[in-house]
Every structure is written in C-alpha cells, then in structure tokens.
Design goal:
The structure is a single chain. The termini are far apart. Helix 1 crosses helix 10 and helix 3 packs parallel to helix 4. This protein has ten helices and nine strands. It is an alpha/beta fold and 262 residues long. It has a seven-stranded parallel beta sheet with strand order 3-2-1-4-5-6-9, sandwiched between helices. A two-stranded parallel sheet has the order 7-8. The chain has a single domain, classed as 3-Layer(aba) Sandwich (Rossmann fold), CATH 3.40.50.720. The chain is globular.
Length: 262
C-alpha cells in the first residue's frame, strides 16, 4: 500500500528544488497534489510532470509574500479539495548580504516568505486540515535558523522563527488531530533527478558546495533535494503518527559537532 493513498497534499515552493521533488514523491505515494508557487511556468511544469506519471496534480499561483494572495491560494486549494491531509510549507527565499547592507524591503520579503507564510498558510487552510480527521503540517526550516549564517542574515532570522512556531503549533493543533513538525536542512545543492535548485544565487548559478562547508560536514557532501523530500514524506505519513512538535535535522552531521575541533 502506498503511504499517502487517498490523501490530498498542498506543497508550497513546488516549482523547483525540494518542492518539486516532494510533489513527485507524494504523488508516487498516492497523494493528489496542489503545487503552489510564484513561478507559473515552472509550477505548471511540476504539475504536468506529476500528471505525466499518472498522478493527480493542479498548479496554483501565489506570491507568498502577499497575505491577500495567500487568502486566494487557500480558497483555491479548498475549492480543489475540501479536505487537506498534508501541508508542506516548503517555499523559501534567501539573499546574501552583510548586515549593514540589508534594506527593509528585502528584510520584510524574506521574513514574509520564510516565516509569515508558513503561519498564514497553516491558518488559512485550517478548516480543510481539521476536516481530515488526522493531518500533518511540515515546515521546511534550516540549520541557519539555529545559530545563524552571517551571510544570510534575514533568512537565518526568519527560519529561526520556525522552530518555536513548530512547537506551539504542535501544541495548539494536536487537539484537532493535526501534527506539526519541521525539517532543518543544510546544504541541499543537488538532485538525483535533475531537478533545478534555485534557493539563492549560488544555487541558481550551479556553484558547488564550498570547501569550507564540505570540511565542516562529516559526510563531506551536499544533500540531495530528494533526501529532504523523503523526510517530508515520513513526517506527512502515518509512519510518524506520534511525532509532533519536533525538528528533524538533515545536514550530513554538520551541526552535530563542535566547530573547530577537527
């Protein structure tokens, strides 16, 4: 039996990277998938890839930095399916800058997409999630949100907020049979299926993992977007039925050791 048979899933940031990998994987495991993204061309492509494999998918365009757009997206999702079993808050934006150079507009957009959107998407889709009589919300965080990445100031601050948000949502929504968990990933730079990775300028330029990051990672390699999708599938499925309010680290061991000790 497939792990998401008969379930409906909403995945944000579905046009590329982990979002596309998760859309394909969830559909292969039996879910109908609403692929949400600001990029209409690549988002439609993801949905078409799912359908080409015999899956059920729809694309819904949304700028997650805009609360009104999230309202519309939620209405469209609930018109598509009145019961939602899985919400994967995966979308993210990241821009490198020194602290003194970050403009307020850029700061606000990164906080909006990386932190406010997971809150709003969860809240606006709550009627359909409650109707599932057992649902899962998965946030996609980052190890940069644990201690901070000096080159990704706004991104680190916003992703850092997902940890306590996961804990408190896990408390408030458990009474409705909704589990809430988070994946804190490290350097996801590659794909086993040729899926484009576009989180930041380095990814879009195809830059490899830096020597510094490689030396700091015990497994000495970057992560594949499919590996994050696998963890999201676990947290979305009944296999994790007693996992709630938790943060899963997916970074090849990078944050599991004390820096400078080897």
């Amino acid at each position: 039996m497939k792990r998401l048979d008969g379930k409906n899933a909403v995945i944000t940031g579905a046009a590329s990277g982990v979002g596309r990998a998760a859309s394909l994987l969830f559909a292969r495991e039996g879910a109908a998938v609403a692929c949400v993204d600001i990029d209409a061309e690549m988002g439609e492509e993801t949905a078409a890839m799912v359908r080409a494999e015999g899956g059920d998918a729809v694309f819904i365009e949304c700028d997650l930095a805009e609360p009104a757009a999230i309202d519309r997206m939620a209405r469209d999702c609930m018109a598509w399916r009145d019961v939602i079993h899985v919400l994967f808050n995966n979308a993210a934006v990241a821009a490198r800058a020194e602290f003194e150079d970050i403009g307020l507009e850029d700061w606000n957009r990164q906080v909006a997409v990386n932190l406010t959107a997971p809150f709003l998407c969860s809240q606006k889709l709550l009627p359909a999630l409650k109707a599932a009589d057992g649902a899962a919300i998965v946030h996609h965080g980052s190890i940069d949100g644990v201690l901070g990445n000096p080159t990704l100031v706004a991104y680190s601050a916003a992703k850092g907020g997902l940890q306590p948000l996961t804990h408190v949502m896990g408390f408030w929504l458990a009474r409705h049979g909704i589990r809430v968990n988070c994946i804190n990933s490290g350097a996801l730079r590659e794909s086993k299926q040729g899926i484009p990775v576009r989180l930041n300028r380095d990814n879009r330029a195809g830059q490899p993992m830096s020597d510094v990051q490689r030396r700091a990672t015990p497994m000495a390699r970057p992560g594949f977007v499919e590996e994050a999708a696998d963890v999201a599938l676990y947290l979305a499925s009944d296999e994790s039925s007693y996992v709630n309010g938790s943060v899963v680290t997916l970074d090849g061991g990078r944050t599991g050791i004390t820096p400078g000790t080897f």
